């Protein structure tokens, strides 16, 4: 029974598609039928002609661009002074590892290996520590921040 219903529905759908295809023949010109590229071009021009008008009635326009100007890459991580920062946490997975660091003012930063910090770069991130190489006046030093364990 279900098979007959399925076959009937498929045949009806095919019949409907055939009738639709016969009803929508391409526009013709004096030279005969129009090429598919001409029909496509006409359809595109019809779509382009549809312009929408929005009247806000005194309210803010929801389609207005909120941010103007060019995007500028921020370098907030360069402002992290690793000497006065504290390591808050370390997170890692199969592909990525990063450290959560808080500076002396209480601002938090996410650092990965290779990220720039003030006067240097992050060299390694381990389970409970982060290491950065700081170069100041031609002298390189390693700064290690260890995760402080708190007793709850």
Low-confidence stretches: none
Strand order, main sheet: write it out.
6-7-8-9
How would you characterize the largest beta sheet?
4 strands, antiparallel
Strand content: 25-35%
Based on secondary structure, the structural category is alpha+beta
Looking at CATH, which topology of the domain at 76-146 would you report? SH3 type barrels
- What is the approximate shape? elongated
Number of helices: 2
- Tell me the radius of gyration: 33 Å
Mean pLDDT: 80
Terminal Cα span: 68 Å
CATH architecture of the domain at 76-146: Roll
**Total DSSP E strands:** 9
Q: Provide the CATH top-level class of the domain at 76-146.
A: Mainly Beta
- H/E order of the elements? HEEHEEEEEEE
The amount of helix comes to 10-25%
Outline:
With about 150 residues, the protein is an alpha+beta fold. The protein has helices spanning about 1-25, 35-50, and strands at about 30, 30-35, 85-90, 95-100, 110, 115, 120-125, 130-135, 140-145.
Task: Explain this structure.
With 152 residues, the chain is an alpha+beta fold. It has a domain at 76-146: SH3 type barrels (Roll), CATH 2.30.30. It contains two helices and nine strands, in the order αββαβββββββ. It has helices at 2-23, 36-49; strands at 28-29, 32-33, 86-92, 97-102, 108-112, 116-117, 120-125, 129-136, 139-146. A four-stranded antiparallel beta sheet has the order 6-7-8-9, with no helix packed on it. The termini are far apart. The model has no long low-confidence stretch (mean pLDDT 80).
């Amino acid at each position: 029974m279900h098979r007959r219903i399925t076959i009937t529905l498929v045949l009806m759908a095919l019949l409907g598609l055939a009738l639709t295809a016969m009803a929508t023949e391409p526009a013709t010109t004096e030279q005969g039928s129009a090429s598919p590229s001409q029909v496509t071009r006409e359809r595109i021009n019809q779509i382009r002609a549809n312009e929408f008008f929005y009247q806000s009635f005194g309210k803010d326009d929801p389609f207005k661009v909120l941010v103007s100007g060019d995007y500028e890459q921020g370098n907030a991580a360069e402002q992290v002074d690793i000497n006065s920062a504290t390591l808050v946490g370390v997170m890692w997975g199969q592909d990525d590892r990063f450290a959560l660091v808080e500076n002396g003012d209480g601002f938090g930063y996410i650092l990965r290996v290779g990220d720039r910090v003030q006067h240097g770069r992050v060299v390694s991130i381990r389970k409970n520590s982060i290491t950065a190489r700081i170069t100041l006046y031609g002298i390189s030093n390693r700064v290690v921040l260890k995760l402080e364990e708190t007793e709850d």
